[in-house]
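re: ur question from earlier - yeah i can do the single chain one, its not a big deal. heres the input i used so u can compare w yours
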Amino acid sequence: MFSCFNDKGFTLIEIIVSIAIITIAFFGVIGVFPYSLNVSERAQNLTGAVYLTQAGIEKSLSLGYETLGTGVVEAKARLSSDPTNFLYPFYRQIAVSYVDTDLVDSVSDTGLKKIVATVFWRNPLSAQEQQYTLTTLLSKN
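and the output i got, formated as tokens:
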């Protein structure tokens, strides 16, 4: 007997459903990319801030106890004025203070200085200022 239906192919509904499933899966995967770019940018900025903060601490330590003054020894300022330089979005501030043996700020020279370096940058996606702070001690002896 002759049949006018071809049982070897897909129906129109099956094709539409499969296209819908593939489309939903595709847009689900595509939606992850902006999030991963945001995470990557944040990690890159934080890594740069850590290195720049450490560099500020090392710069201060290299001056030695007697040469290193107290107060804000490096005011918050942009690290590069060239917008094409990778340092352009970062600002750094370094403050030094005397501390006593309990690590409480002191007004007199106790033979121990606290160096606080902070790097600031603006998150380009949220436009919020971020910061990373590193603190170390420098003794007179």
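The beta strands are 71-78, 91-99, 105-106, 112-122, 129-139. not sure if urs matches, ping me
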